[in-house]
TrEMBL record:
Coiled-coil region list: none
Keyword Glycosyltransferase included in the entry's annotation: no
Organism: Pandoraea terrigena
Name under which the protein is recorded: site-specific DNA-methyltransferase (adenine-specific)
GO molecular function: site-specific DNA-methyltransferase (adenine-specific) activity
A biological process term (GO) from this entry: methylation
Matches recorded under InterPro entries: MethylTrfase_TaqI-like_dom (IPR011639), N4_N6_ade-DNA_methylase (IPR050953), SAM-dependent_MTases_sf (IPR029063)
The entry's keywords: Methyltransferase, S-adenosyl-L-methionine, Transferase
Membership in a protein family: Belongs to the N(4)/N(6)-methyltransferase family.
Enzyme class label: transferase
Reactions that this protein is recorded to catalyse: a 2'-deoxyadenosine in DNA + S-adenosyl-L-methionine = an N(6)-methyl-2'-deoxyadenosine in DNA + S-adenosyl-L-homocysteine + H(+)
């Protein structure tokens, strides 16, 4: 154990650590929480494929796994190295692992020792070598910031900063640049980019979101000062891991994995930029097509807050002035691809005009039900106002969480709500074209290529995505 990690700790005869320092105990607890949230381990076929892409083993190249978990990457790398070297070859100095969690570190050392034994080393010597090769240390706070290794390989943690225990988040803020703090994966990518030697290679299994999310664009740009992308491939979430995160045994983890190879080659034409990367997508297939946003307005439907306040049921609506009400629809009003009769109404108010007494009385009696984030501005205005929307034309509603971007017709005078996507066109004929285009196979393919993936084949559809969607049935 590294002393900066376990201040004032001592060991009992069985090697178990005894803690007598409150700060150390608090950090140990934080590390336990972090491990529980990030421990997704990579299956050996995925590891072997990535090591092959990294051309490992390669002469005297030095390899590190900066977050080795239970040691699968290191074990497979060591096995391949020893197969290529004479009997009795000492791998220290050529393979190294870092792991923040003590129990995972013990597992990794045991796995490495087993590989060494299988290649003829004695159990005692294997255990000693394994202890030398794997460090129970935090790579983000104690790892080097200058080139050290020829190959970085592993499966770094993916966890948004908000979910990192506060104690560790505060520590990392002193070691990680601001553009790499949004997710632990970002932090590891940044640190790995600094520790790989010129012409070195980084091979990682990562969550896909850093490749294309707008929030990671600055990270991509800064990484591009040192790294070029040599390979990016989507993996199956069902088979890539053997220890899913926070799930029942055998169920897929909440991540969409990719295998990525980066090369330390500053100045290369293929260096990373702010531009999103979509693994496996042939962008040329969509060239020459008109985009939906060229001739239709795509907007996000307003969120009016907790139901019962600005969105009311039929019984409540009967007691309010009809001129202040607008029929409202959500995705639960869609049945078999058709929109049913609206069962709720939205209260329309204007920022510069206090509503009639009946509306004010209703809002006054219900505002205590409103979610905290919905209480803003004037007492008679919803969190997201729709008073200026033109509802006189027929429109389309597109559920923002769906498997394909199919649309449903919405009659004039009806308001889509709750952040669903709404499309308004200049004419009925154009709206027909948009509806047909959204139902076309190319739209479904586009969504699968570019939309953020959710669970069970569902996609997150956005206004930006729909505006850029190609219209196969509209001549360029």
């Amino acid at each position: 154990m590294h002393t900066s990690y376990l201040n004032n700790a001592s060991a009992d005869p069985q090697g178990q650590l005894l803690f007598d320092d409150a700060a150390t105990t608090a950090r140990r607890a934080a590390v336990d929480v972090l491990h529980a949230r990030t421990a997704i381990y990579t299956a050996s076929p995925v590891v072997d494929d990535l090591l092959k892409r990294l051309a490992w083993p390669d002469a005297a190249s030095r390899l590190v796994d900066p977050s080795c978990g239970d040691g699968m990457f290191l074990a497979r790398a060591l096995d391949a190295l020893l197969d290529a070297r004479p009997a009795g070859f000492d791998p220290r100095g050529q393979i190294e692992g870092w792991e923040i969690h003590p129990a995972a570190c013990i597992d990794a050392r045991s796995r490495i020792a087993a590989v060494l034994v299988s290649h003829g080393w004695s159990p005692s010597r294997s255990s000693a070598l394994a202890n030398d090769m794997i460090h129970n240390r935090d790579f983000l706070t104690e790892g080097p910031t200058t080139p050290q290794w020829d190959i970085v390989a592993g499966n770094p943690p993916y966890l948004r900063a908000a979910n990192v225990p506060e104690l560790l988040r505060t520590e990392y803020s002193r070691h990680v640049p601001d553009y790499a703090r949004g997710d632990m994966l970002h932090s590891f990518l940044e640190r790995c980019s600094r520790t790989v030697r010129p012409a070195g290679r980084i091979g990682l299994v990562t969550a896909d979101r850093w490749l294309f999310n707008d929030g990671a664009s600055r990270l991509r740009e800064r990484l591009g000062q040192r790294l070029s992308l040599a390979h990016a491939e989507r993996l199956s979430a069902e088979t890539a891991f053997y220890r899913p995160k926070q799930r029942r045994a055998g169920s897929p983890p909440r991540v969409h994995p990719v295998s990525v190879v980066l090369v330390s080659d500053a100045g290369a034409e293929q260096n990373l930029t702010r531009r999103p990367i979509h693994p496996g997508v042939d962008e040329s297939r969509y060239e020459g097509m008109r985009l939906l946003g060229d001739f239709a307005e795509v907007r996000i439907a307003p969120w009016l807050g907790t139901e019962g306040v600005f969105v009311v049921d039929a019984a409540t609506a009967r007691g309010l002035p009809p001129e202040c009400l607008v029929p409202a629809v959500d995705t639960d009003d869609i049945q078999n691809g058709k929109l049913g009769t609206p069962t709720r109404w939205a209260i329309r108010t204007h920022p510069g005009e206090e509503p009639c007494p009946e509306i004010m009385a209703h809002l006054g009696s219900r505002m205590h039900l409103m979610a905290k984030r919905g209480r803003q501005g004037k007492a008679w205005m919803p969190p997201e106002s729709f008073h200026s929307l033109d509802l006189s034309r027929e429109s389309l509603i597109v559920p923002r969480i769906a498997k394909t971007p199919k649309a449903v017709r919405v009659p004039p005078g009806v308001l889509p709500i709750n952040h669903n996507l709404s499309i308004v066109a200049g004419s009925a004929a154009t709206l027909d074209q948009v509806e047909d285009a959204l139902a076309a196979p190319v739209a479904a393919e586009w969504a699968r290529d570019y939309a953020r993936r959710l669970e069970n084949a569902y996609l997150s559809l956005t206004t930006t995505l729909l505006r850029r969607m190609p219209m196969a049935n509209v001549p360029a």
